[in-house]
Description:
- The complex is a heterodimer.
- Chain A has twelve helices and twelve strands.
- Chain A is an alpha+beta fold.
- Chain A folds into two domains: 6-42 and 257-401, no CATH class; 48-251, no CATH class.
- Chain B has one domain (37-50, 81-229): Rossmann fold (3-Layer(aba) Sandwich).
- In chain B, helix 6 links the parallel strand 7 (168-172) and strand 8 (199-204).
- The longest helix of chain B is centred in the last third of the chain and has 16 residues, at 180-195.
- At the A-B interface, helix 8, helix 9 and helix 12 of A face helix 2 and helix 3 of B.
Amino acid sequence: MVLHAKIRSWLTILGIVIGVAAVISIVSMGEALQQDMTSQLGDLGGDILTLTAGASKAQGFGPGRDKSGGGSATASEEEVVVDKTDLQVLKGISDIKLLDTQIKGSADVYYVAEKGSVNVNGVDPATWSQITTSEIAEGRMLGPSDSNVVVVGGKIANGFFDKNLGVNQLITIEDKLFRIIGVLDDTSTSIYMPINAAYEILEDKEKGVYDSIVIQIKDEDQLEQAIDNIESKLLISRHVTSDKKDFTINSNAQSNEARAEMMGSMTTFLTAIAAVALLVGAVGIANTMFTSVLEKTKEIGIMKAIGARNNDIMTIFLLNAALIGLIGGLLGVVFGFMLSGVLPALMGDSGGIMGRMTSAGSVISLSSVFLALGMSVFIGIISGVVPAYQASRLKPVDALRYE
Amino acid sequence: MRQNSTILRLQNVSKIYQMGEVEVPALKNVTVDINKGDFVAIIGASGSGKSTMMNLIGCLDLPTEGNILLKDQNITRLSESDLASLRGKTIGFIFQQYNLIPSITAFENVLLPMEFQEIGDNEANQRVKKILEIVGLTDKGHHLPTQLSGGQQQRVSIARSLATDPEIILADEPTGALDSVTGKQVMEMLTNLWKEGKTIIMVTHDLNLAKYAHTTIELKDGQIIKINKRLR
């Protein structure tokens, strides 16, 4: 039947192909994303925490520490910050191995006659190189004695200006001259410099006040206890209770897990949309099989006359439906594989979750291939059950009379 | 030596078709025995009940009243599956319009009844080759029905009817769509099958064809009006 009703069968198969290809490509991109997340989790290290000012969404602001220093009853009206007092408190905690104070902002950078806007990161030059997960491509990281030097992101060195930048070349940030000592192995437009130099560049930043403090703890296995310990010490020093907490400690592990979970939900959502395409394909199979039963009524009568049982007729139609599903599934897997290879490139360097999906590429697992094939055959059979049953119940004498 | 055991018995068989609220009697209280090895022609004018009788004899339909015993099995009491099995093994059909499956080759058409009887592939293939040789179509096995002439298609139909080596060949106007020469060839083939021991039951309105038969059952208005037996 599949072979002899060519156009209709192939159009029906096309419905399944589209559905399976959509499912395969989305699932494979989702799997790649999750693998990417897992590997990033490993790269970033589960021993890194970040302290920032302000409560997490679940909590309100308490009295906290304002820019003037100590906490007070009126401080809730002031901007809550993380400052050198917090740094001193953290230095006294035995669970902590390293601390890196950071400020961030954007600044104009000049090179020859060109100008561009970049992200400036002021970091502790003594510890940043040990805490950061960035890798150096050329030159070296910042050191404790560095002052007017910078490490630039890969994109700034290559392609940001007409002429590529390299180690020992000079650039002007705002109105100060800096020497490049290192180029990072990434595609960022960030510039890293000692925090004291950054205070001079980012004029809105107050010295001794930080955007964040990156904390490396001694024992990754004791992460939860370390967070509890740091929190309790900061609550005391900032004169706030836990329900009025005015600071947030994020762990890389936790935030990546949350992100991975969100990506998983996104993949499930997209897969559900793709599954609708598969459902439409299933309706197509049912439609084709019903039409086929009508067209083949006389042949069903002939087959019954020459000894076919109801089960034989049912089997013939179910096998046809399953065959449509199988062929659709096989082609769908092939197209899905091709699509998942092409889709990331087509989506380009978009930001956000889609951007992450794009950069993660795709991973076709054997289990998803077998699942897709199994699903398409199953859908074929389910779609064919009612038409096949209808065909099998035809009375031979009526079927033979059908024209 | 011809056996005279009854292979098919119709006992007080009636068939009534329901046309909306109107009941149309097609066969009325028919009783007849057909012996094994007989060559029977069922004749009558259009609307006399020939086709209804053929459908009942071929187990394609069930009577409204009465019993039909095929090889001593009352078909009115058989399940659909058992009936299909009995039909496939015992009766070979030859239709006026050949009724071949158009999408498969002549060889596959002849093979099909054996597939339903679950006869092994090797044996089935051998048997198809042999039957196609008998009907003179050895070289046409790979042709689709549409690539064959009417006479050749009817010979494929005869070959298919012989596939499961049934005891009864049921032919419905077997020459109705053929020219006189080809029709004569087909009738000679049926006669040869009868001589080899098959029971031939032929439905026709053509009295010239009925001359090939040794028993003639004449129907009128759904009733048997005459049974004529000729000496062999």
